[in-house]
Amino acid sequence: MKKISVLLAMVLVCSFRSLPANAQDIDVSTKYQEPIGQHIQFYQNKETHLSMQSAYDAFQNGDFSQSSDSVLNFGIGAKPVWLAFRVRNHAHDYVLRNLLFEASWLDKIDVYYLHKNKLVNSYHIGDRQLFSQRPINHRFFVTEHDFRTGNTTVLIRIESDDAMVLPIYFLTAKETADRNMLQAYSYGLIYGIILALVAYNFMLYIGLRSGPYFFYSLYLLLFLLLNAAYTGHGYQWLWPDSPLWQQWSNPVLIMLCTLSGCAFALNFLDIKTASPRIHQSVIVCCLSFCVLTLIAILTDKFIITLFISLLFIFYFFSLAVILGIISLRKKNRFAQYFLLASIFTICGGIVTANTVWGFIPFNWLTYRATEIGMVADAILLALALAERFNINQSEKLAAEKRADIDLLTNLNNRRAFYKFVQPLWSISLRSKSYTSVIILDIDDFKLLNDNYGHPIGDLVLVQLAETIQKEARSGDILARWGGEEFLIFLPETQLTDAIAIADRMRKRIMTIQISIDNGEKISFTASFGVATTQDINVSLNELIAQADQQLYHAKKKGRNRVYPDLSN
Asked: From the UniProt record, which GO molecular function terms apply (predicted)?
């Protein structure tokens, strides 16, 4: 439930750092595929009804603070915020651009366009209005403006009792349509899968009259409605004339979806038989949450209702794991599926929450990880009776993993290296970032084998592999390239940094000592070749070949060294 994860993240987000107002202007001739938050300055004042002119004066006086994040985030129940940025148009003609606010729950958005200190256009939108009043038929909020030659200042006032997380995009009309179409395909797939599972489980309930099938189909249906409410599809398709329900739909549907999830868990895991007292306690807790929610709704306390629903979610996540463990101990063979499905949902929520916090890059995959986790949850639970299929899949995955590992050193082999590196290499080509490769070779390894035997040679390889693993960074990809050669892929790393890493590994390898039967201790060294590229015309294999050539020079220069050697 993406909405749930975002709201959970909002509870923990308290404040933003203020930075000097030095945002780079937006140029209409440049494409902005990512949110433009880092171009935006923001301003929150005790005066919640600050006029547009007063906000503009504050912006001109440098009172606004610079955002450091691509997606701005002010938390739940935040005060109204003013945003501002400048747009440059060096062309002689007007240029039409859209502002896309990818947050469907914002109560009120006022957008002002000022050219030469004069207001030339404005929009007043938000989900407190009827959907038909939106200037553009879109599930999110979209405004369009013809930018004149010169500089235009865009002022935006946003007000919302809900989570104020603001992915704002600056796009052409075609880019807006293409983005919406791409998302429509993905949502169509997700909604199609879930609706198919709803129908499948409800048909099973009709045929078998078994409670778990009914509660599971209800749970999936309510999740679908909740997701539609969060994504804006609900307001666009199902209740376009009900702004009041649009405001309250999220906390109400969160409660109903969580309540049906609890009912499904109790029935699916047969908790009433496994532990009657826990079964009764869960029912009492669920009823208590429902009563508290009803009181908050009747007293028109939206924020309180929202926090009660969030607390209910925390309770449900914890309960799912506890009930799964209880049922597993009672030898319920389906409990493992329930636990695994719950982990998928929770992990998806963690990814989305960390995306909102800014710890993970914001993109459609990380932001919608909860949806992906929920689809996995739905599929796993729908296939709970197909235990043999799941076992076969697990065995297949285990065999594939074994095929990717060098059995002696436990590092990736060549096959796994290319599998893991190829996506990173593609990203580096698109971003034109520096990418480095280190190749290392044990000096006089054949002599070690001849003098001490192959078991000692194998021990040398194992010790070296463990050492370079410890010295490598978390994002680096290591592989045994063959024999005594090892390869390290370093994304987003310049030559000087790669050389420093290689030299640190070289010095650490020199400290390794291996004891043999007669008490003698042997040590060994390694030579390193390093290559770096930013050229999109250089292939991965060519970069590896360059590193191999540098390794040849290191050997030729006397071994136990890193080449190129920038100190010379």
From this structure: diguanylate cyclase activity
